[in-house]
Amino acid sequence: MHDIINHTLFTIGGDTPVLLIDLVTSVFGLACVVLAGRNSKYNFWIGYVYTALLFLMFWNKHLYASLILQPISLGINILGHYRWTHPKKDEVSSRDHKSLKVSMLTWPQRAVAVISVFVLAVLWGKLLSLLGTRWFIGAFPADPVPYLDSCVTVLILVAQFLSAMKKWDCWIAWLLVNVTQLWLHISVGHVFMPIVCGLYLINGVVSLVNWYRLYSKKA
Fold first, then answer.
1. What is the predicted pLDDT for the residue at 113?
2. Which ranges constitute the DSSP H helices of the chain?
């Protein structure tokens, strides 16, 4: 398994390896967000595979906050799959009575989300900075970017939860995720994922507009 994860397809610039796991994860990640942006429930099936691939990729790079995120992400994905396909009576889409309509957070809810991201990212980052340096020394390689890793992790959790609830605001969160992930992947030497994050940014803007139209139509 380790050899498969670390299999090098080719190198860029003579010294930057392009790994098989990076390429496959990128393809599934793009497929997942494009389907979500198009309001397709099939994004969840792709998301299950994407979660497993991300787990392997982050294990390979010792990004523990992002690694721990994947089982939680799986749970949120299952919740979202159910919510999208089992709406309550007052949540039904005008286009499909079996689908959840797009809604928005209130301003107080947005304030709570922002404060929660900041507090949790700082606390989680502090814990990660101790892992492998003061705690379990020698058992784990130290996380190379603990605070950035934790920030990305918390933002993804918030974005995924909002997506599961089909809140328009999720795309604001995803855009923030894309920017921080772009920085994270570059800092640890990923090759394909920064390119994917750039495509995510484009998809995020398009999806932001598309979901606003759906919200306006109560769809």
1. 92
2. 2-5, 20-37, 43-61, 64-85, 107-130, 146-164, 170-187, 192-216
